[in-house]
Every structure is written in structure tokens, then in C-alpha cells.
């Protein structure tokens, strides 16, 4: 079966064929869960808020006008749902084993890290980032969202997103460099 773009499925759902929404859930469930997990820092809450985000998206699908990518719209719903939840609860747990790191991590220019260890180091470095910085990295590097799309998702200005991404890159390089030095000293 030929895969269609998001708009095809959105139109089907808007026209009363709700079963087509399952395609959207299948396509975006991992990233929606990853955003929720990082913001909420609790697996059970993240699962609940990811589900809640999809429910909100489904109920509000008629208001999606297509002025931005559907993923941007969905991530904004997820981010706002999770931020609202953090205002209700204050949990500080994270299970980084559940964060999915894909091959696109190489875009961070990790040439100094042996290929077989990159995922391990990137996960460990990401774990050390605050939730807002992690979300920016996740959206930009792993979900290929543009600065403007991230701006719409997070509510930050585009210039603020650029500055924060620059600072986070520098911070990640420092974290990774420190981790590599620690491992080198442990070997020696």
C-alpha cells in the first residue's frame, strides 16, 4: 500500500472516517511520548499525556488549517498539555531508556565518538539537559523541525530558539567531551 501524506489522512478524518486517525497516531506516537516523558519526567504521566494529546488533536482536528506542518501543530498540543500537567504536579523522574535516539544523531557531528558508542553517549548527555533544552534538541535534530516550527511549538521567538539551540549544542559538546575524558582516565 502506498503511503499518503498527513493531509490525506486528516481530510479522511475530517470527512467522518475516524479510523484513519490511527495512521497519525502510529506515525507520531514515539515523538509525542518522548516529548511528554522529558517534560513530565514520569513514564505513567507521559503515557497518559501522550494519549491526552492525541485525544485533543482528534477533537480539534477540524481547527487544523494547514498553515504549518501537522507535526508542528501536534507537538504544540503535546507541549502545552504537558506544561499544564506540570503545573498541576511536580514530579522529577526521567527514564532515559525510553527516549528513542535515531541515526540522525550524527548531525550533531559526533565524529570524535566511536560509532558503536554514540547512542549511549548521546542518551547520557541528553539526560543531563533541562527539559526545555532537551525538547529543543529533540525537535530540531531528531524530528527535523525548523526554527519557525519550534517557535510555534514552544512559544519562544525564532531568534530565541536559535540562541538556545546554539547554547545547547555547546553544552552538549562540553558534556560529551567531559564524558569521553572521564572514560579515557578510567581506561588509563
Give the helices and strands, then pairings.
Layout: H1 6-14, H2 21-40, H3 43-60, H4 70-88, H5 118-127, H6 131-142, H7 147-154, H8 158-187
Question: How would you briefly describe this protein structure?
Answer:
The chain has 188 residues and is mainly α.
What does this structure look like?
With 188 residues, this protein is mostly helical. It folds into 2 domains: 1-100, Rna Polymerase Sigma Factor, Chain: A (Orthogonal Bundle); 101-188, Orthogonal Bundle (Arc Repressor Mutant, subunit A). Helices cover 67% and strands 0% of the residues. The protein contains 8 helices and no strands. The chain has helices at residues 6-14, 21-40, 43-60, 70-88, 118-127, 131-142, 147-154, 158-187. Helix 2 (21-40) packs across helix 4 (70-88). It is elongated, with a radius of gyration of 18 Å. Residues 90-109 have low confidence and may be disordered.
CATH superfamily of the largest domain: RNA polymerase sigma factor, region 2, helix turn helix motif
Relative helix content: 55-70%
CATH topology group of the largest domain = Rna Polymerase Sigma Factor, Chain: A
Strand content is: under 5%
Number of domains: 2
Number of strand elements: 0
Q: What is the rounded distance between the termini?
A: 55 Å
Average pLDDT over all residues: 82
Instruction: List unreliable stretches of 5+ residues.
Output: 90-109
What is the CATH class designation of the largest domain? Mainly Alpha
H/E series: HHHHHHHH
Number of helices: 8
CATH architecture field of the largest domain: Orthogonal Bundle
Q: Let me know the largest β-sheet.
A: none
What's the alpha carbon Rg, rounded to whole Å? 18 Å
Question: Structural class given helices, strands, pairing?
Answer: mainly alpha
Shape: elongated
